[in-house]
Specification:
GO terms for molecular function: acetate-CoA ligase (ADP-forming) activity; acyltransferase activity, transferring groups other than amino-acyl groups; ATP binding; metal ion binding. With 901 residues, the chain is α/β, with parallel strands linked by helices. Helices cover 36% and strands 24% of the residues. Helix 28 links the parallel strand 35 and strand 36.
């Protein structure tokens, strides 16, 4: 359940306060007064059998006495009363309720069922939406609604704030009021028994009164729903959040280094980044980031140029930038020449640029123009300290009168009252402005991170890298064999067999049952070799002396195996020693030791890890986390964020590692996770990486039955290869498959084949070109919510050529999906349009979509004829020349169930 009936919750025409009271310091008293004082224009119904009137309003004995079903009800009564009230309100026709009462998840009825479960069961038949329980309530200041027991109201504005913390909710209200910040909606989620972050993101993403979404998050439960909603919202408007709980209370036990390293906060951080949102640390940062993002134009690069009329301020900004991972731009020769023409010879031409305390407005503007033209500069930070020569107010007015620069400019005005007037002028002119160099530098870094996250948002990886054909059957046989023996931990040779089946290079490893056989196998492999313990009861071999390296003879190999057994049993007498792994020693003199792995998070499911490896991996704690599925771009981002990435570039006489081989290893592991749901934990430690590629020296895999089957355990649905098929188009087979991100060039070429009439019928207007962002929205879809099928054939060069495209974009509740279909002129007349429409109808029906709708120009007679043949009915004329058509896909009862699921 997502956005159904949320409009009644956030834009009601009537409100009932159940448990309204006159007693001081009662929640019901505060809520009723807040609803009245907020200026709500709709009907207000107090409900309490103890009163005939309350606040000059008629008071009703119970829900059954109400004159009509209120759009919104606010419940302020004891826990035991809530389930029955929900039932009564649902039967009356109310579809939105705020439950302020706490304790429902703890208290049980006489059958042992929690009151919260009873409440949800009572709401389900009516699709009645519940905010809370245990929440402060909600405010929609634009309609004067304050359905909360907050201590104050909120100003109307364009920001939406959603919080899990009631205490933070009221604190932010107070904080924002002092700064004259207004809100479209202000929502306390409480225990989120029904309405949660995913629902709110879906609702606010399409709310025209909301320009940006701010959130305070402690946790979320439904990862797939949250990620789909977050990615959809972040495509439309900035989403900025504070996520609490950065420091874990203690390391959890895990059978792999990856499991121990992949802390919950790291996983949330990866999810936030992948969803295109921005994470900040404080309330100040939350609102400052929104102001920054709202004023920025799109930009590229991550290097900053700084100009200031005081050298010290420039140094402070540089320190703040670099210490937080930022970079200064290296000014080009052309930029330095431009500065020569404007700056006195006594001042330098390096970044940060000191223009001198005696600078006039010409020097300010000329320097700014030069830096904005610098090719390496992504943005400029302008810092001004007040001087008698050039007052801040004069500089601000001069900047405000300039045409918008070609680059984003962050302004910082040092000082008090005079500086504040300069800041106000800049804000009104649309320039981001700050009161300290540190805050300005931090704002630039947040903008860089936001832009990077937005680029990650546009990545929807294919399920299989091109040319990659893993032996999935072999892996399933290995995993099922181990689990059939009651083992969760695969042996090292089994783990390496899994990796080899997915094309990850592994060091040659043979299995010996006895010390004598270890000596024989060592002789066969060739020296030097390593001998390692194989035991299902011992996870980390080196901890019990279970690894001996650099063995030069068969006798040494036999003795090593004997000593390994003695040490293992001395450390763990109950352990079973099932054999010994004998492997060739690898010369890793120029190799970097890395760790790559998989862990399973309780919320987001499988996650991937990359970092610096070796025996001290948990002490070094250099790791980055990513969510599968990955493509090469996402893998590249994971590697770049690890500290070890700087070493991988090479230094002194050590050559750089083969980055592409590392990226591909991560992508292959991602595919392994997508294909084999039993892979719960996996380590490759160390993974040797050098100029020639990668090699897995040691591997450890834990297999368990997944909590959810198939792709359901993944937070992001990968490319659904199972939906690929072949259709007949005029007697010729045509491949029909879901669209992929890499189809963008082919889609662009397809668009250029369309006639002006085709474009008119499809887009209702003459469009000469589709921008990259427009094509990205078509080719980079969330397969869990939308579907686009393309009909393809190979061109002469073997590249895919698009012949037709059909899409269905469902609402978050899957009640309605809007379709669109286009066929290239070269493929028209072959029945391809009908085949594609039948394809999308069948897909939508199987997905449980309630109905398929479309908007068709009356002049598009071919489409209207096809639609009638497929069973569509012409519902109504939306405007002159545009027909709304619809095709019900589910029996009525089933469609209703789907909408409330």
């Amino acid at each position: 359940m997502t956005t159904r009936n949320l409009s009644q919750m956030f834009a009601p025409k009537s409100v009932a306060v159940i448990g309204a009271s006159l007693r001081e310091r009662r929640v019901g008293t505060t809520v009723l007064q807040n609803v009245i004082d907020g200026g709500f224009k709709g009907d207000i119904y107090p409900v309490n059998p103890k009163y005939a009137t309350l606040a000059n309003l008629k008071c009703y004995r119970d829900v059954g006495d109400l004159p009509q079903a209120p759009d919104l009800a606010v419940i302020c009564t004891p826990p035991a009363t809530v389930p029955d009230l929900i039932r009564d309100l649902g039967e009356l026709g109310t579809r939105a309720v705020v439950v302020l009462t706490s304790g429902l998840a703890r208290e049980q009825d006489r059958h042992g069922v929690t009151l919260q479960d009873r409440m949800l069961k009572s709401a389900k038949p009516h699709v009645l939406r519940i905010l809370g329980p245990n929440c402060i309530g909600l405010l929609s200041p634009g309609i004067g609604l304050n359905a909360s027991f907050a201590h104050m109201g909120a100003r109307a504005g364009k920001l939406a704030f959603v919080s899990q913390s009631g205490a933070l909710t009221t604190a932010v209200l107070d904080w924002a009021d002092a700064r004259e910040i207004g809100f479209s909606h202000f929502v306390s989620l409480g225990d989120s028994a029904d309405v949660d972050f995913g629902d709110m993101l879906d609702y606010l993403a399409s709310d025209p009164g909301t320009d940006a979404i701010l959130m305070y998050m402690e946790s979320t439960r439904h990862a797939r729903k949250f990620m789909s909603a977050a990615r959809a919202a972040a495509r439309n408007k900035p989403v900025v959040l504070i996520k609490s709980g950065r420091v874990p209370e203690g390391a959890r036990a895990a059978a792999s280094h990856t499991g121990a390293l992949a802390g919950a906060d790291d996983v949330y951080d990866a999810a936030i980044r992948r969803a295109g949102m921005l994470r900040v640390d404080t309330t100040d940062d939350l609102f400052a980031a929104v102001e920054t993002l709202a004023r920025l134009r799109p930009f590229y690069g991550d290097k900053l140029s700084i100009m200031t009329n005081g050298g010290g301020a420039g140094v402070m900004a540089t320190d703040a930038l670099v210490l937080n991972g930022g970079k200064l731009a290296q000014l080009s020769g052309k930029t330095r020449d431009a500065l020569d023409a404007v700056l006195p010879t006594t001042l330098g031409r390096v970044n940060p640029v000191d223009i001198g305390g005696d600078a006039d407005l010409v020097r300010y503007t000329a320097t700014l123009e030069a830096l904005c033209e610098d090719p390496e500069t992504a943005a400029v930070l302008f810092i001004q300290a007040p001087t008698a020569v050039m007052p801040s107010l004069d500089v601000a007015n001069g900047l405000a009168a300039l045409p918008k620069p070609s680059k984003n400019v962050f302004t910082c005005w040092l000082g008090g009252a005079t500086a504040e007037r300069a800041r106000r002028i800049c804000r009104e002119a649309g320039w981001p402005t700050y009161d300290t160099p540190e805050n300005a530098a931090r704002a630039f870094l947040e903008a860089v991170n936001y832009r990077r996250n937005q680029s990650l948002l546009m990545e929807t990886p294919p399920s299989i890298p091109p040319g990659f054909a893993p032996d999935v059957a072999r892996v399933r046989a290995i995993v099922e064999g181990a689990m059939g023996e009651g083992r969760a931990l695969l042996t090292e040779p089994e783990s390496k067999g899994v990796l080899a089946a997915y094309g990850i290079p592994v060091v040659e490893t043979l299995v010996a049952q006895t010390p004598e056989q270890a000596g024989e196998l060592a002789q066969r492999i060739g020296f030097p070799v390593a001998v390692k313990l194989i035991s299902p009861d011992i996870t980390h071999k080196s901890d019990v002396g279970g690894v001996v390296l650099n063995i030069e003879t068969a006798e040494q190999a036999r003795e090593a195996a004997c000593q390994i057994r003695k040490r293992a049993l001395a450390a763990q007498p109950q352990a079973s020693v099932t054999g010994y792994a004998v492997q060739r020693m690898v010369n890793g003199a120029e190799a970097f030791e890395l760790i790559v792995g998989v862990a399973t998070d309780n919320v987001f499911g499988p996650v991937l890890l990359f970092g610096q490896g070796g025996t001290a991996v948990e002490v070094i704690a250099d790791r980055t986390i990513g969510l599968p599925p990955l493509n090469l771009n996402l893998a590249r981002d994971m590697v770049a964020r690890a500290r070890v990435s700087k070493l991988l570039a090479g230094y002194r006489n050590r050559p750089a590692a083969d980055y592409e081989a590392i990226y591909l290893t991560l992508v292959k592991l991602s595919q392994l996770v997508c294909d084999v749901p039993e892979i719960a934990e996996l380590d490759i430690n160390p993974l040797f990486a050098d100029a020639h590629g990668v090699l897995a020296l040691d591997a450890r895999i834990v297999a368990r039955s997944p909590a959810l089957p198939g792709h359901g355990r993944l937070a992001i649905r990968p490319y659904p290869q199972e939906l690929e098929s072949t259709v007949d188009a005029g007697g010729k087979p045509v491949r029909v498959r879901p669209i992929r991100p890499e189809d963008e060039p082919a889609y662009k070429a397809f668009f250029h084949t369309l006639t002006p009439q085709d474009v008119q019928f499809r887009y209702f207007g003459l469009i000469k070109e589709l921008s990259h962002s427009q094509m990205a929205r078509v080719t980079q879809i969330d397969y869990d919510r939308a579907m686009t099928f393309v009909a393809t054939e190979k061109d002469d060069a073997g590249n895919p050529r698009l012949l037709g495209v059909v899409q269905a974009l469902a609402d978050p509740d899957n009640t309605v999906a809007e379709f669109a279909v286009t066929v290239s002129p070269q493929a028209q007349g072959r029945g391809l349009g009908r085949a594609l429409m039948e394809h999308i109808v069948e897909y939508s029906r199987k997905r449980g979509t309630g109905e398929l709708i479309g908007y068709v120009l009356t002049a598009n007679t071919r489409m209207l004829t096809l639609a009638r043949h497929l069973g569509f009915v012409e519902d109504k004329e939306m405007e002159a020349g545009v027909l709304h058509i619809r095709l019900p896909l589910q029996p009525m009862a089933k469609a209703q169930d789907t909408r409330g699921a």
